[in-house]
Amino acid sequence: MLSTIQLTFGAYLLVLLAIGAYFFATTETRRLSDYLLAGRNVGAWPVALSEVSSVASGWTFFAWVSVGFATGIHGLWFSLTMIFVVVFMYRYVGSRFRRQSEALGSITVADHLALAVSDDRVGGYVRIVATVSILLFMGAYVGAQIIAVGEAMDTGIGIDYAVAVAVGGVVVGLYTTLGGFNASIWTDVFQGVLIFVAAVSLPVLMIAEVGGWSAFVAEAAAVEDAALLELSGGLAGQALLISVLGWVTFAFGTIGQPHSLMRLQAIRSERLLSPAAVIAVAFQSLRLTVPLLIGAAGRVIYGSVDNPENVAMLAIVDFFPELVAGVLLAAIVSAILSTSDSMLLVASSDFTRFYEERIDPSASQGTLILLGRIAVVVLAVGGVAIALAQPGTILEIVEFAYIGLGATFGLPLLFLLFWERTTGEAVLAGIVAGLVATLGTYAVTEHYSLLVWPICIAAIVGVTLATSRTGSAVADVPEPTSSSQLADD
């Protein structure tokens, strides 16, 4: 007989499918940009909540909780850096990127980099390498999310891991295929509210179980082999420096997350970026700190567990009534699905744009939308395959994908937007360097994040200086116009 938790969770999944079906039935989708960017007509609240939900993934409630379980608040080095980067992206990158994206007609960051290069030959190479990079890193990222879905449903709901992986892959693939970016945005908004409830209530109950804040502080300080409430994490000297630099360089990957950058392309007006930034930073601050407390409280309560990435799932089942637990487990899985749907859309759109630009320029918009939907299904199946293989922990897989995307797309985009001397060849060099450096350094050292950024920066700057006179030009950033400064009315 199905439990209350299972019934509640199943009802939640049906709501997601209903949202996808609603937008499939009611949205007029004639152009690829309608399907992939919702016609560039998304407001501040949906953009901000969706952006936070799209990165509040299995990494947050599984991998990040496990960091809190192992090292406590030492992970705040990552959190503080990422908050700083989010502010920078909204304050300085968002308006320039949104403006240039509309001028170029770009749909994703990979599409943007290719269209920004004036030389069609160089732009073609940019699109090829960028598409390969997207499929590689996003494929790994989606696989990590579906692993988290499987662990959540296995630990919290009692569904076999393999079955859970298949169910999660089918649901996210189906509602994204049906509703496109509109479905992704509005399921993310719905999920963002649930994420907030889960993130606030769970640590409060766990700390109350310990005996209150004072008792928690005392017991956390008494835990052996872990400085849970020390920013140093109990490290000192060179070990502390390497650890801090590792977290900081990991967080720098935020500059190049395609599923977040799509939100900046889709927002209705540049003027909405400021309120969206406030909303996003508030929610990001919450989701980057609270899971560390959940992990630290789990260390105090449970002592040791087979898999620290499942601590949040164990706590939800232990500390909430079944009905509430079902809703909150849905909130955790919602965070995972919200990341997966965004990633599927990005990878699908880049593959579709590659088809349109390099294989069949005469393809109709209907054909491209159909191809995009087919690509979502194929990528979802690939993510399920990776999840079944489980090549590493969620944290390891996400870190690899996060740094790879940041270096491959984030750095070239920043140089393109802010350094006028950047050439098309330098953009291509940056993408190639990001791909090769991430793969190469990952294979030889656990501290690969420290090496990727210097390599990529050197490649972009070096090629720019070498080709500044003979290289292909890149598009200028248009000046603000009255149409781009419209208020949200």
UniProtKB/TrEMBL annotation:
> Where do transmembrane segments lie in this chain?
7-25, 61-90, 128-149, 161-181, 193-215, 235-255, 276-303, 323-347, 368-388, 400-419, 426-444, 450-467
Alphabetized GO MF terms: proline:sodium symporter activity; sodium ion binding
Alphabetical list of InterPro entries matching this protein: Na/Glc_symporter_sf, Na/Pro_symporter, Na/solute_symporter, Na/solute_symporter_CS, Sodium:Solute_Symporter
Q: Reaction catalysed by this chain?
A: L-proline(in) + Na(+)(in) = L-proline(out) + Na(+)(out)
Q: What biological-process GO terms show up in the record?
A: proline transport
Q: How does it sit in the membrane?
A: Multi-pass membrane protein
Q: Which residues form the signal peptide?
A: none
UniProt GO cellular component terms: plasma membrane
- Matching PANTHER family: SODIUM/PROLINE SYMPORTER-RELATED, SODIUM_PROLINE SYMPORTER
Protein's name in the database: Sodium/proline symporter
Tell me which species this is from. Answer: Natronococcus jeotgali DSM 18795
